[in-house]
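User: Second chain of the day. Same drill as before.
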Amino acid sequence: MNKIRKGDEVMVIAGADKGRRAKVLARHGSEHLLVEGVNLVKRHTRPNPMRNETGGIVSKEMPIHQSNVAIYNPSTGKADRVGMRVAADGAKTRVFRSSGEEIKV
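Assistant: Same format as last time:
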């Protein structure tokens, strides 16, 4: 079970975008995340009239390693670690390590 999922609000804790808070758009593989507005690169693209695309320099988001982000805890306003709690029936839930409260998706 992944500790950080699509739709979670995360805080970047390392890299050029350190301190930025954003949503996870997608997971790429088992260790990389696509985060909204983070790790932007300039991409030179050719025009493609078949797809009605114009050419030029386009900014796009690239995946970032999951170790460089931490989940955002709205009650404390800070980044937090994620723990797992197993219920009596065997169901796993994600919890904030600092407070122990369940993470709402």
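The beta strands are 9-12, 21-28, 32-35, 40-45, 56-61, 64-65, 69-73, 78-80, 82-86, 92-96.

User: Great, on to the next one.
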